[in-house]
Amino acid sequence: MGDVSVEDLAELEAVARSLRGTSADAFRELLAAREAAATAAPEEEAHPLLGEPEFPGGLGFGAVRWSCREGCGWSHTEMPDMEAPGPLVLPVGFGPDDVSAAITHQAEERQRELRKRVEGAFLEHYATAHPESAPLPAG
User: Fold this and answer.
1) E strand or H helix at 119, and its extent?
2) What are 81's strand-pairing partners?
3) CB of 103 within 8 A of CB of 87?
4) Burial label, 118 (beta-carbon count in 10 A; 0-12, 13-18, 19+)
């Protein structure tokens, strides 16, 4: 690539100005969202019974499996990508930010429900198969 001339920069600036209110604003919003995500509080820690999830291709599209840490061969498999997301709840006169917030809320709720199911399955498994290793109930 050659050097960039003043004329090239002026032309680029003119194009950027013409994009104001369209994709340039959307790009700035995307960058702001990335920055916010980078400085956000860390996600909840995984339950101590859960290992890293596995993504076995042989179980089908979207399968996620967690195996027992005791090495007994038991595992719990979920298909979170196959769940119907449900309706979006939007206010009257909604805008793009409302749609984004509704989708985010829905995804977070689905993640909480998935976590509860997986942790419940592990707690039940440990209580029956490994009672000596089962964690004590909180409280």
Assistant:
1) helix 96-129
2) none
3) no
4) buried
